[in-house]
Design goal:
Dihydrodipicolinate Reductase, domain 2; eight-stranded mixed sheet; 2 domains; alpha/beta; seven-stranded parallel sheet; 15 strands; Rossmann fold
Length: 361
């Protein structure tokens, strides 16, 4: 049995229906809103079972864990406590959280996972997730790499769930990390051409810097160049920080839902560069970010059900074969783009060097 907590949300319903379609296991759709879980169970494929679960009272989780082969956590609420309950009982867990502090809390459970011979997999989704796999792929093809750049282009009119919108707004409101001071950059993105991307605090920049052993910079842009420029100009002049002091993220989150200037396509792109200027890149493109996050999480959950991953707490790029995984996710409607296998002998010319945010180009 697979348990999907938050299984009726924007990402959770993709995880639940993908597992129900691709696995013979029963899939439990769990969450506080039983009516929404029941509605998905009626309309979805396979064996979907609705269950009410309030994460503020984890005693309700005990009965689900007795028969669970895997738990997929699709909400950000008491994540460390849920992961600990799963790992203590020897139940593998997947967590799609994108917040660095949440991931760090679950990372601390590595001794528990190893003691019980169980795996937990983090950085599972689009960013983090596919970005990690692409970065690992590039670093593997260029062992001399001294830096990695990750760029995410999101569709302004994509299938963003409320948690995704709140997280993005929080990232825009966060102060820039002056110790890193990465600059904006022009990146050639498949299907969009050269686009300006701006530093953004994706958790990948911290986890990948550790797992790859080289500095990693993460950047963001939207499919609408005008909206991208406006958002990051507002961030540059401190408008988001002022809004935070005056009223918090809620008004900005509501306003962002009204801004639909764009499409639903996304690009995640990684490039590894070495000291001699050689560079390799890889990217994945598709439509609807929540759909992509859900299918990546579902594939990892299937791997845990099949006991393909070792005990411990791991980020996705530490346990999957990057080439194999990129091949697998293409069956879900994503397209993988890679630089030809032969490495260039001259420094790349398609990417304009980064400049400090707010500086002139």
């Amino acid at each position: 049995m697979a348990v999907v907590i938050g299984g009726y949300g924007a990402v959770g319903r993709v995880v639940a229906t993908t597992l129900a379609r691709d696995s013979a296991n029963e899939v439990v759709v769990a969450g506080r809103d039983l009516a929404r879980a029941e509605a998905l169970a009626r309309s979805g494929p396979g064996r979907l079972t609705p269950r009410r679960l309030d994460l503020d009272d984890l005693r309700g989780l005990d009965g689900l864990l007795a028969d669970a082969a895997v738990v997929v956590m699709c909400v950000e609420h008491r994540n460390e406590a849920v992961a600990r309950a799963c790992l203590d009982r020897g139940v593998p867990v997947v967590d799609i959280s994108a917040s660095a502090d949440v991931l760090a809390g679950i990372e601390r459970l590595d001794p528990t996972a190893r003691r019980t011979g169980t795996a937990a997999v983090l950085s599972v989704g689009l960013a983090p997730g596919l970005t990690n796999v692409l970065a690992r792929r590039c670093a593997g093809r260029l062992p001399s790499a001294t830096s990695v750049d990750v760029t995410v282009l999101l569709g302004a009119a994509g299938d963003h769930g409320p948690d995704s919108v709140r997280w993005t707004v929080a990232g825009l409101m966060a102060p820039l990390d002056r110790t890193r001071r990465p600059g904006r950059a022009r990146v050639d993105l498949p299907g969009f051409g050269l686009r300006t991307a701006y530093p953004f605090p994706f958790s990948d920049q911290y986890t990948l810097s550790r797992t790859l052993g080289v500095p990693v910079t993460t950047r963001l842009c939207l499919d609408s160049a005008a909206v991208t420029a406006a958002l990051f100009w507002l961030r540059g002049v401190g408008a988001f920080r002022l809004a935070d002091r005056l009223g918090g993220a809620r008004p900005l989150t509501g306003a962002s839902n009204l801004l639909r200037l764009g499409g639903d396509r996304f690009v995640v792109h990684a490039a590894a560069t070495d000291g001699g200027g050689r560079q390799v890149w890889a990217a994945a493109t598709g439509r609807q970010e929540c759909q992509a996050t859900g299918v990546v999480a579902a594939e990892i959950a299937l791997g845990l059900i099949g006991r393909r991953y070792p005990p411990g707490v791991h980020h996705i790029d530490q346990i999957v074969d990057a080439g194999e995984f990129l091949s697998t996710i293409q069956r879900h409607g994503l397209t993988v783009h890679e630089q030809p296998s032969s490495l260039p002998t001259e420094p790349p010319t398609g990417r304009i060097p980064a400049t400090p945010e707010g500086g002139e180009r």
